Fold these 2 entries.
Entry 1:
Amino acid sequence: MKKYMTLAIIVAALALIVAGCGAPAAPTAVPAQPTAVPAQPTAVPAQPTAAPAATQAPAPTEAPKPTEAPPPTEAPTAASTEPTAVPTPTIPPPVLTTTEGCAPNSTPIVWFIGLGAGSQPNDVVKEKAWADKYNKSQTEACVILNVVYNTGNNSYDALRAMIAGGNAPDIVGPVGKAGRASFQGSWADIEPLAKAAGFDLSKYDPKLLDFTKDEGVLVGIPFALFPSFIYYNKALFDEAKLPYPPHKVGEKYDGKDWNIDTFTELAQKLTVDGKGNDATSPDFDPKDIKQFGFYEQWTDTRGIGTFFGGGLPYDPKNPKNAVIPDNWKAAFKWYYDGVWNKHFMPNSDYANSDQFGKGNVFSSGNLAMSWVHTWYTCCFDLSKTSWDIAVMPTVNGVTTAKLHGDTFAILKDSKHKDLAFKVLSAMVVDKDLYQIYGGMPAQVADRPAFWAALDERAAPNKVDWTVAEEMLKYPDLPNHEAWMPDYAKSKDIMDKWRVFIDQTPGLDMDQEIAKLQAELDAVFKAAPEQ
Amino acid sequence: MSTAVQAQTATAAKTRVLDKRALRNLSSTVILTGIGLLVLVIFLLPLVYTLATAFKQDAQLTAQNAPLYPAQPSTFNYEGKDYPLYEVPIDGTIKRLALIKPFREDSDMLDPEHPENGVFNVKGRWRTWTPVYTFSLTLENFTTAWEQVNFPRLFRNSLLLGIISTVGTLIACILVAYGFARFPIPGKNILFIILISTIVLPPQATIIPLYILFSKLGWTGTWLPLLVPAFFANAYDVFLLRQYFMSIPKELDEAAMLDGASPLRTLISVIIPQSIPAITAVTLFHFFFVWNDYFSPLVYLLGKEELYPISVGIGAFVTTFTNYPGRAAATAALTLLLPAVIFFLAQRQFMQGVVVTGVEK
Amino acid sequence: MATTNLAPVPTSSTFPVKRTKSAYSRQRTRWGWLFLMPWIIGFFAFQLLPIAFTFFLSFTDYKATTEFKPGNFNFVGLQNFQRLFSDPLALPSMGVTLKFAAIGIPLGLIIPLAIAVLVNSKHLIAPSIFRTLFFLPTVIPVVAGTIIFNGVLNSQSGWINLGLKALGIEDPPRWFGDPLWAGFALNLLAIWAVGNAMIILLAGLQGVPTELYEAAIMDGANYWQRFISITVPMISPVIFYNVTLGVIFAFQYFVPALLIGGQNGNPQGSLLFFPLHFYRQAFVFSDMGYAAVLALVIFVVTMVATGLLFFFGQRLVYYAGGES
């Protein structure tokens, strides 16, 4: 019948399009996944030791979510231990597919990327190149990438299904504290693995190792440092005929101390409405803001609190009691006042608008100063924007620059943990990987090369990287991503509260802070005993 | 308009009051099309926004006082650099000047008609001046998207998945729906409720058990988990077809059966021809479901990029919206092209409708 | 919903059976089972498992942070079910879902029906293009669609609010920034992807025998009378389908809420849909056992709603082919 004919035509048309779409059609059934090949330990890979120092890095991915942000993870402390040089194996030119270039009998080691940084298209290319380089450098392991871009938490769901299905990947990372907390109990203890591999963990500053522990278990090796500082847009300072902010702690700004008051006033002057009035002017129109002075990009409630110094949201003697430290309370009030009354920081409507880069505010060119970490070099056009970096202002005479760090972790259910550790120990000292994640090498000797590579991307800008090195000396203690009881739930509250104050005008801050504390208190009290 | 004309001629032949009727037809055509256009405009606003974003340079999105349509700022080249032009009111007249260096209360400007006069300072706030833009479509986002995303491979994979899965679904669902619609099966209503219950759990609740099942079967890393279940019918499509089959008068199949046709024969020669619109709907419904399905292929094909369908393949690009809004929008727009063509071709099925034949009245 | 107004259509007469009734109907039954086979096999192979698994999990404390195998979980009896009664978020999140359903289900029927009637009209110029354009948003992947809506509805730079301001509305809604509007904004997003419902209704409209309209026109019925007394009853099976699917869809809805409001259902929990609450327990807090209970709640509530629909709604539906 005619009707069949039409149906047949549709099917045929579809088939034609398929055919037209190039390449011989793939066979329907697809070859089953690679079966694991028994490991054939032959050549021994390089045995790196090394880097000390910081911890994790975060990664802002561009979350489609509103305001909040991403992901950074925990923080490190300061300084470093001495690293030993890592012999890098010779590297044949990278090939794009990961499975090529593996030694014939190598064991597949699955590297899952998606809980933190590393799943952006540009990163993935570099990660693949790294895997290829590594695969060709030895014959034991074949690193296979599993990359999931984290939209609506898909990467978390996928990893969980893989774990439950007995198909767990071997290495996960970069991953920070929050990402790990969602899989608490999934992570392998690194210490015995290091011991078995003869990897000397004592080279690391114990404080630093502590940052990489979850609930007392070491789940990774410290990787790189991500200090924070003020990114500033030079063109916007020029436009306002204002001098640039200081590059050294203790330096004056325009004859005044570089403290929170100076900073607030500066940020207000750099906030401008459509008529050209700045935020100090009585004619200023908060409904038509075209440029903001300051933004605390991509951090949660604890990050905002840390602007006024480090702290813990509970009584250190009894973590079951939630106590918001006074400096955080002051910071929250200052922040809220800045968003809704003084208007020099964007509320969530502005921050997520097209004009302000849909949450990536500094990249829009309409933000004068942004407080972010070294990893933010991922996410704006380093060469087009005219920018530099400045030190943090003091609050009550103290300078604080929150610090981040990610690590790579091994899953407990991995079937090749020892081999995975070998790969991991090569990853944490790899110069190329530092570059991908914008992590400052813990080893002082490696830094010039790291900065030089960034400078290349930033040209013609000449960025004063000594600021970053200096800010490393003022970490937030305790770190803003330090342990909290029931981390997944308390972190959830910390994320929620910042979005709440970004979205809601007219709040009584004292009351809201009390509510936050009560909410945390309930979670802390209900947290399972460690 | 051809329909309108046809309608007119048909009426003309039949009735004497043809002028009146034709006029009424014409006016309903105009009114209806007008309403349709209006609704469509509102409806497509988000798509227009996406397209506009795709055709803009990213800088235009964040530029102050830029127009909503894709445009380029008009610039003047002075000593090797491009400077934007502004409409500047000076002494009661509007002059078109290049903004060399903006300051809050005054700016360094240049008159493009007299560059030899050099840079001069103009009092006033540049933010209140109108920048000069000219309409211009940037294709760069599309070319970048095309280069970075392997569209031919992704389209091919998605089409293959979609066609195989749709064929399986059509065969299985037509049979099952026919069973539910026409045969006296004991406990049929209970069975039907059970069928419905299989789609009631949120998909996120079924991820883990299904993943465990398919990984035990060794099917992860292949298309099998995405294709095999399609051949065993699903509640959405069975339900729809059953509803449709049940609205076909029974006399039709009874007549066929009187002629000695088997139930299968009746299905093929009576029910299916009567249900072309519904079958087309199911075809499109299921095909685009597969086309858009994101999470299942993601989980089952993780690490097998050569097998990714388009939904997964573009995931990372679509969501880099904050960093590269233009490229993300262009990627999304390119993804829409093929389905739009397929739908356009397929929807002709709805043009004629079903003419009931063979029913004795 | 379908009206009670049954169509003046020839109802099916009983078929004069020549063979003995029982032999014939036994044979029919066998054929019926045969046709159902693909689904029955598929049910046991693929569809039963998730339901049984969810049920099983609800009695355990499995966390899905290690492989699912004995030893990695314990049985906890009815503990997870007890928790449901002390869960402070269970009711508010069900409220969010019910509000979404209350607005979304009627709109999700009326708007696609209106559009289907429009694009089915002989008076529309270039209906193919209209159909294609109305269908287009349906093909946009959920993630992309959500991002686009987030842009269009941004209260500062979104085109909707720019338009409202141009119309003289000084303080247009803050949409996803305001708990009063956020849920409704998602209703709009859901309606945007109207295409599937539209083509299904279009198929229904196409199935109405043209003779019926011709007869009604002879009797002098105007357009509206024809629509109510012929079109609606004749497409009532498809309307019933759309409503049932609308109910199931509404009770499962949450992914766009997750993309826009994050894990917390921002602003202020106004996007914390019940399934999102379930999702958080399972995938954010690793509490698969309690999450399974919440999933069962979704299951039961949806089944009850669907069951009621079948029980009451079915009577309003006119099947030209009879109930067999």
Entry 2:
Amino acid sequence: MNSIMFLHEFTSQRLHLYYQQQKESGVKSLMNGLRRLFKFAPFMAVFLFLAGCGERRLTALDPMGPQSQWIYDNMILSLYVMAIVIIVVFVLFFIVVARFRHKEGDNEYPEQVHGSTKLEVAWTVIPLFLLAILAVPTVTGQFYLSNTGLEAQEAENEEEVDEEELDAESAEELGDDVMKITATGHQFWWQFDYDFGDDSFTAGNEVYVPVDTKVAFVLEAEDVMHSFWVPALAGKVDNIPGIENYMWLEASEPGVYKGKCAELCGPSHALMDFRLIALEQDEFDEWATAMQEEEEAPTESLANEGRELFEEQSCLQCHAVDGDGGAMGPSLANFGDRETIANYLEVTDENLKAWIQDPQSLKQGNNMPAYPDLSDEELDALVAYLNQLEKLDPETKEGLERD
Amino acid sequence: MAETTDLSKGLPSHPEKATLEGKNKFLGFWVFLAGETTMFATFFGTYLGLRNGTGSGPEAADIFSLPLVFIMTMILLTSSLTSVFAMFAMKKNQFKKMKIWMWVTVALGTAFLGFEIYEFVEYVHYGLGFTTSAFASSFYALVGLHGAHVLFGLCWISLLLIRYNKSGITLTNAPKFYVASLYWHFIDVVWIFIFTVVYLMGIGG
Amino acid sequence: MVREATNTLQKSVLWDWLTTVDHKKLAVLYLISGTLFFLKAGLMAVFMRIQLMFPMNDFLSGQTFNEFITMHGTIMLFLAATPLLFAFMNYIVPLQIGARDVAFPFVNALGFWLFFFGGILVSLSWFFGGAPDAGWTSYVPLASRDYGGLGIDFYVLGLQVSGIGTLVSGINFIVTIINMRAPGMTMMRMPLFCWTTLVTSILIVFAFTPLAAGLALLMLDRMFDGMFFIPGEGGNVVIWQHIFWIFGHPEVYILVLPAFGMISEIIPTFSKKRLFGYTAMVFATLIIGFLGFMVWMHHMFTVGIGPIANSVFAIATMIIGIPTGIKIFNWLFTMWGGKLTFNTAMLCASSFVPTFVLGGVTGVMLAMAPVDHLYHDTYFVVAHFHYIILGGIVLGLIGATFYWYPKMFGHKLNETLGKIMFWMFYVGFHLTFFVQHILGLIGMPRRVYTYLEGQGMDTMNMISTIGAFVMSAAIILLVINVVYSAMKSPREGGDPWDGRTLEWATPTPVPEYNFAQTPQVRSLDPLFYEKIHGDGTMKPAEPIGDIHMPNGSIYPFTISLGLFFAGFGFIMLNMENAIISPWIVIAVGGIITFGSMALHSVKEDHGYHISKETVEQMEKEVGTNG
């Protein structure tokens, strides 16, 4: 185990250094960059084209965090290496196709060559080197991705109990806490549990994280397998019932990121999207405090009616509006801040009403019962109640970047 | 093929491999056993993966009875030995002797199967049903699969013995008997692994 | 005529086909049923592409779409690609090694009927409340009793039955190739197609048995409340993934190796050169086959088995790139310096090389475990394996069809139609699948029935669907070609391509006994050797005489039918209101199966002999034919 820990540390240090160097030696590398640009101009064109595809904060071709950046860089590295193979094969192929053709009336057999040991050795050994180039980042990268920091933290916590005397250095390290969120997959929504010791709370379908902070995710599943994926920030890891998985991510810019479930989980697998919202640290703290507050009766009378209905219709059995309530459906504590309804619908009153009346037609196979008998007034009241369940500072909400 | 071979000087020393058909059966059966091995390996793997998944049910060490299993092991080992005697007899063209040894094999196999059924019934009484836990399921699947193989082997050998009761050893039935005894050895080898992996490891941890 | 001279004369046509144990007739049966399954699954693919044409399209519901992806994958791999490859393996391998039949003609027929009834069983699911819907991998818990519907039961039992068929066929091929070779046909003189068939068959023996075990476990879970894959009472859902991929990865090589073999036959023939680096090709095949079992966990990089396991399996996967590269370069150098004729078969075979390289390089990219956290379960993977399967296996199959068609059916397929078909297929294929790489990278997971607007996926999905239309048009053209050629193409002799291997030394149509006299093989590419060093015909290794042939038998059909009933009976256990007790159906099926087996075992069937005179007369007839 010690050697693994060492590898962990080693890799993350190296990677850290790597990124610092990248930043510092900007000017020097500009010349190199230009030279490279000429060499690989055609590739660059392809990459520009690729980067042009897809939506910012969704596509993995426009990485927005250190992990996705690492993945992107190494994908490009592998593309370069593979380009060598492709070029060699295609050049050979087109030469063959152009040069060696059978001509009418030529009945001679060509020379029956048996083979060539030298060539065989060549195309065995050269690819070995090419693969070696890829094998090194494969191993180091896997440790980099798997290192959530949770394990190290636990080990240190244990040490703390064992040894009372701590020198200043390790005390500093201890302060470097990893934030932990448990992401649980359900058919077809996400539950995010924030663990701040005594002050824990639950959010549904939208996960808020502080920007520029490494966040560790514990992945679980309630029913079938799911897979937690924010393409612009990190690689995916599966949520498996009965098993705890771990991953981490870090967002370098505030904004609203799109996440997806990447493992087939039933009829509405395609609609199991979620949002990851990265906030500045102070804004995040504010939000987290708000989330821990108890739900209060709204001042507006319509919304108050809605609140009563919400209890009458036993919505509370499945949906929590603060720490209490069931967990069969997503927590609605901050429903008013939602970017989507039912993970994909645009936030409008009409959509919300349609959803309450007949969820099955909008999202096949989900577990929410239909409420077709609610009158228009009742629906209005419910909508008014739900829409005022806001936890995010209005200014912050306004300033969120969505594309 | 069979009738074209010259039998005037008696059977060749390896009657099971004397014809192309016999050779094909011989090789084909070995390949089949390779496949069977992989299948059992998968069941073993599943058992090893799930043997600690006892849930709320009893654990291996609580229920396994080594003396019973030891007796079963001895019975099956002996039956393997008697089938070897039968094959020796076949190569010497002593049909009657072969028949007797084969029937002894069948008798021992039946005894083994009886003990196994008794064993399963006992476990169910102790509260280890097939659906009790993942450990129970994988245990019954692995040992039950072996039991099914024993049952199939018994039917097969009996059928051969009845069918060729009066025919003597021929180039047609020699490969069949040979292959059946090969199958029987295979079952025996699998049991050795079950004895070790399931019972000894179950009791010893 | 040839067929009438032997004992098939007395039988009706239907009875003859039901009871045949002739490897050539079974090959035709495989070809027809494989093609039908291929068309069915292809149609599903077109429907799925129509659904994905526009964002939030409602042509198919999510549930139906899931049933389509599952059936498309399951049918294509188990019930289309496998039998189509088996068709050629059955027809060609005995001819190429100079044998009169396979080692176990009875088992050969059994293999076909098991596959056939297994396929029917899977397809029946549509009529009993819906097809399986958990993907061709049927990951638990989505496929376990709490979440998966009756369709999964059809998947489990149908694949179990057809899997046994594949397994026994595999055993048969191994014994045939090892024991039945003509005199002088040493292992290192065997055509590469025989080698790949041998390695594929070995893989079948070691891969389909874990599948059988896994399916049995899933069946116990679903029908008898087993606890294997139920988390909570100690069960573990990841075990299913391990078992499935221990089978599933070799399965890829089971399919692609015979395609490699076909390419290795077609390219030398139309380059008029012997295969470059034959020995290296043989060993590359063996190494690929071996490594195929060492890499299954690369399908599970995101399951969380730890960085060490991920790294080990990543590197093992990369190493497979090397023997594959050896093959690619050997094909290129076979063509180098040759005199290439570009007919449809050669177009497919030669374009296979660069296309397969594109699939191969994405394979190496996927092998980088940490980067695979991005690719896994996205359209990038979909693009990758379609480049392997369509650009590899299907191109190989189409090439093989054009190449061996005159041997199997006595006439060539039309070349003009063939070339149009090839270009349509090739262009359509790249249109469909190239953009899917990028779709995956910009965030489109696989197996999604729809996608939202404004995610930059609209245009590329449209392109992909158009490509799929072009590809289907090409397949329709192929079907037209088959019908057109049957009416218009002239009859061909035994050796229409100036062939190099033994199958071209037989007359067309191939007589029931293949070779009147077993040929004496003197070299690799034996027929070509005789063309250069002899008079162009094979030297016989034995005098002409009576030929022993196996009798037809209905038991393969009844054994399979019994298993079909038994399988259906097990499915009925999960049906809510079965008309009769499932146990009766299971018992009836069991009695038919085991009864047939016992009858077959008890009845000694020594076959029959074609007399020397008949053989001589038939050879004369065939001689005038071609």
